[in-house]
Amino acid sequence: MRLLVVEDNVPLADELIQGLQRQGYAVDWLADGRDAAYQGSSEPYDLIVLDLGLPGLPGLEVLAQWRAAGLATPVLILTARGSWAERIEGLKAGADDYLSKPFHPEELQLRIQSLLRRARGLANQPTLEAAGLHLDEGRQCVSRDGQDVQLTAAEFRLLRYFMLHPQQILSKSHLAEHLYNGETERDSNVLEVHVNHLRRKLGRSVIETHRGQGYRFGGVVE
Ligand code: CA
After folding, report:
1. What is the dihedral sign for C-alpha 128, 120, 162, 67?
2. What separation in Å is there between the alpha carbon of 37 and the centre of ligand 1?
3. Which residue among 88, 155, 164, 212 is least packed, with the fewest CB closer than 10 Å?
4. What is the DSSP string of 77-88?
5. Looking at residue 220, what is its pLDDT?
6. What positions does the domain OmpR/PhoB-type occupy (predicted)?
7. Which domains, from first to last, does the chain contain?
8. CA of 7 to the centre of ligand 1 (A)
9. How close is the Cα of 78 to the center of ligand 1, in Å?
């Protein structure tokens, strides 16, 4: 999943980005509201973390512009501690959730996971499940019939994307756009290697190849 972090406080942004990268998210970072207004609606982000006090353009304005342009991406706003007015304004402007600073990294992590599931219509799942697999996002491993299967970091982020989009045909370029940020090399051969590793670990039928179209993570969705 590819995330945009908009935060002008550099030490906080650094901490956020490092934490999110450890959790297997591809992260882009912007500090200026005007840049965010543009890039947030032109790149295919899966979720945006938005600070409200920003140079260039206030976060509330940025959010209002995105929503006015029809952007449906989940947005989690970061608000000043105790500022109920900010939270209310943020929710009115179309935020999906908020966190007050300072916050615990694990709370952000869990809220992001839950927003991503909700955005995919999986709000009823406390954890990510599809095709008989159960993904533990905290431990970055998958289990089937109670048996843990260990994953590399790259396999985990690919499998998470598949499990959030079960039974959809996903092209290699689409996957690359959502798994890697702008600076990372998007090599479709690397993707193929990871798909094959997942098949070896989870069974060939778990990911079908649709020639010329892409991959489909399948099976019966429970
Ligand atoms: Ca700020």
Report:
1. negative
2. 15
3. 212
4. EEE-TT-HHHHH
5. 43
6. 125-219
7. 2-119 (3.40.50.2300), 128-217 (1.10.10.10)
8. 6
9. 9
Residue 46 Cα to ligand 1 midpoint, Å, equals 22
Give the type of residue at 94: G
Query: CA angle 104-110-114, nearest 5°?
Result: 145
Q: What burial letters (b/e) apply to 21-59, b meaning 16+ CB within 10 Å? A: eebbbbbbbbbbbebbbebbbeeebbbbbbbbbbeebeb
Closest CA to 94 of 58, 53, 52, 66: 66
Q: Which residues of the chain carry a pLDDT beneath 50?
A: 220-222
The answer to whether 158 touches 175, Cβ cutoff 8 Å, is yes
Helix, strand, or coil (residue 138):
coil
Cis peptide before 166 (omega within 30 of 0): no
Cα 99 to middle of ligand 1, angstroms: 13
Q: Is the pTM of this model over 0.90?
A: yes
Query: Ligand 1: distance of its center to the CA of 138 in Å?
Result: 28
Length of the chain: 222
Coil, strand, or helix at residue 213? coil
